[in-house]
Amino acid sequence: MAGKVQARRAALRDALIQHAEQRIETDGLKNLRARDLAKDAGCALGAIYNVFGDLNDLVLAVNARSFHALGAQVAEALADAPQDATEQLIVMSHAYHRFAAENFNTWRALFDIERPAGQAAPDWYLQEMGQLFAYIDAPLSVLFPDHDAEKRALLTKALFSSVHGIVLLGLDEASAGVPAAQLDEMISLILSHLAS
Amino acid sequence: MAGKVQARRAALRDALIQHAEQRIETDGLKNLRARDLAKDAGCALGAIYNVFGDLNDLVLAVNARSFHALGAQVAEALADAPQDATEQLIVMSHAYHRFAAENFNTWRALFDIERPAGQAAPDWYLQEMGQLFAYIDAPLSVLFPDHDAEKRALLTKALFSSVHGIVLLGLDEASAGVPAAQLDEMISLILSHLAS
């Protein structure tokens, strides 16, 4: 009996993650409602909170999948990239732009999720981020052989944040942003200056 | 009589902007409620919509003030900056960081305001942004004398977005960001590479 209950619980967990992902991608994180998800999954509202502590925990699970998908897309782009370190940074950044454009709302949810003030991000989040950052670190160690690991880690975060900012304001239709058609060109320009 | 009505309306407008600014800075844009503002201003809920078309229009008016304050802070920093173009970019970016840190929620509201899809930002927003961008354009024309105005405008937006991204992820306590203590250092590093 316990096995059956656990299996049902696991199935509901998967279903809720999939429904939440779809709703986030379609309507955005801020329009996510537990009531809608209960309807989607054909379960009682309370059943959601048996599986996830709160809606935020469910969004974290969706974000874990998004981080995986993002990492896979970056890795795939990197596999076809030239050996040149600057080119590798550019190829990864363009892949980041593509992922953000094609999965806009789930990408935004990675950063828009509520974090209780002062609370560190969960370990899986740090691990997924760490994987992305390892991709950036490799070409940086070629470009800046004199930087120690700590300085490279800072530069990695600064570079990631720069590209994130260009993509964010560009895709957001904010007038402060680079027009979408020139996003990749400007990312390439900034990154090629870095290595010069 | 008409003059009295207009004066009262203008006074209510100013009061609502000030109350909204305080509430945004204290509680964040997403917790702004018309009901609370009516209480703050001692007016009926409907009176707000006599002055502003909707709550978004009121937030736009708050953002106009924030843009002014931001521009003034950047201009002040620039007045004390050395003649060196790269140093000027760095000084302005540090001023941007300072403004964002000291006015976190009103700064976030500049970018988090709802924009109906496909609708361009209002003219005053573009003008305020244009003023900020003019500050950036000046040193860029020294650093890159061969770029035409169009290319400089693109580079200006890309640079602004880069610095914005570093500040945003850094202040947001997102683990992807540069730690707050190293924000200025990393901004300086990225910008000094640009000019090299």
Describe the structure.
Two copies of one chain form a homodimer. Chain A has 196 residues and is an all-alpha fold. The first copy, chain A, folds into two domains: 53 residues, Arc Repressor Mutant, subunit A; 140 residues, Tetracycline Repressor, domain 2 (Orthogonal Bundle). Chain A contains nine helices and no strands. In chain A, helix 4 packs across helix 5 and helix 8 packs antiparallel against helix 9.
Summarize the structure.
The structure is a homodimer of 196-residue chains. Chain A has 196 residues and is mostly helical.
Jot down its keywords.
homodimer; about 200 residues; mainly alpha; Arc Repressor Mutant, subunit A; Tetracycline Repressor, domain 2; 2 domains; elongated
The largest β sheet of chain A comes out as: none
Give the overall silhouette of chain A. Answer: elongated
Order of helices and strands of chain A: HHHHHHHHH
Q: Report low-confidence residues of chain A grouped into runs of 5 or more.
A: none
Instruction: Determine the most extensive contact between two protein chains.
Output: A-B, 42 and 42 residues
- CATH superfamily annotation of the largest domain in chain A: Tetracycline Repressor, domain 2
Q: What would you say the CATH architecture of the largest domain in chain A is?
A: Orthogonal Bundle
Using the coordinates above, name the CATH class of the largest domain in chain A: Mainly Alpha
Kindly report the oligomeric state of this protein: homodimer
Radius of gyration of chain A: 19 Å
* Total domain modules of chain A: 2
Report the average pLDDT across residues of chain A.
Answer: 91
Distance separating the two termini of chain A: 65 Å
Number of helices in the DSSP assignment of chain A: 9
Strand percent estimate of chain A = under 5%
* CATH topology value of the largest domain in chain A: Tetracycline Repressor, domain 2
Give the helix proportion of chain A (percent range): over 70%
- Helix/strand-derived category of chain A reads mainly alpha
